[in-house]
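Backbone geometry:
***
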Amino acid sequence: MMRCVAVLLAYVVYVQAALFASHGRVVRLDASNFDKEVLQIEKPTMVAFTAQWCGHCKNLAPQYSRVANEMDGVVKLAYVDCEDSASQSLCAKYGVQGFPTLKLFPATKKRLPRDYQGERTSRAIMDHMIDALPTESVRRLEASQIASFVDKKRGEPKIVLFSPKVKSSSLYRSLALDYRERIPFGYVYTGKPGVFEAAENVLGVKLNENTVPALFLIDGQAGGKRVEKYRSSMKHRSISSWVDKVVYGKEPAAPQEQRKAERTSESAAPKPKVSARPGMSEEDVDAAIKIGERLVREEHEETARKLAEEEAVARGSMEALRRARSKQKQMPFEGQQQAEEPVSSEMLMDKLQDMVGDKWGTLLAQHALKARKLAEKIVQDDPAKAFQATEAAEAHLSKALSADIVHLTDQIRAGADDEGYPLTADMETTLKGHLDMFQGMLRTVEARIEARKSDKTEKEYADSILARYDL
């Protein structure tokens, strides 16, 4: 009986320390491995500074783990236990004052961290990490540029992806970061004319709309060039192993050896400390740890299952809403005057969607909602910071609208949508209308920001602009 009680007591200690499963993809950090795992790599890395007793940290853990699992290899997610004596110097160095504190270490040379202020959901964190992958790591190529890209520095390897998607994926941008300074990565959008002909003329490969995406490694050698096509799954680890084998002659590890290496890496990583209680043997502690790991893993899996179910329900509700709205529009108008209804955020979203289409209307509504939540959070933390809250909300809107404008411009220039389908004349006209509207909104927001910086009212600032151009 006493043995069972001792094991359960040790388990309680373990569960309090184990925010993240030791076998998982979230890397545990302390002062001994922080530089190697975060500062000396190329990938964007999110670090969560946590405490064992923190309720918000416990809520974050399953969301955070889900991102780490889904984006394994593409980006890195890690955490620091600020109650561990081996980590307290890190928490002090990075100015951690509350838990959890999330910091993004971007893919830059200095790796200067930026505070993450977004929602603590897997979707929001995942979007933030995808945005952190720099697009400049991949060179976009037109059909006429493929030959010069391949022939430049002929003795060095290059990688080219032919894809029907307008934009390169986060996976491809991540791979380009892995080999930055060693192998240039090119990206060819196949929705433009002349691409398939250029692929055959330059690389000697025959492609068509049914054989893309297609990934090639070109290894320039004396007297010609070797072109290798990738023929396995589009997974980070698989592609990386293929590149290492073709370019550097490294044989990929067998699955058993890979799992053994991962277990060895996990065993070398810092572990949560479990203090033995009086009367407990080392076997008791080991048994408690195994029980704790299993139960924590099961808890995370159950949470992930519930999140997936909630997302499915949300998607079903949105589809039902769209069908209902479509039927309502088809009903004959009888001329009766309807009473005014109170305006809700859902109704505003509907109006925006009706104005500019489901996709762009939803984006606008999401931008507005995030800006509002950001302002509300600042004011809730400190009611005296109303001015700063307004600034933060407008800065968020400015950044979001700018990104949307770039996205719209890319589609119009490419003459195709996100899925690679050519734009009809009507679709292009619609997108141009959306672009004009977004640019007008951005100018309005930026005018408010500039007016505040110049200590003028909006009217005074507008008058100064008109006077500048004699309008």
Notes: The radius of gyration is 27 Å.
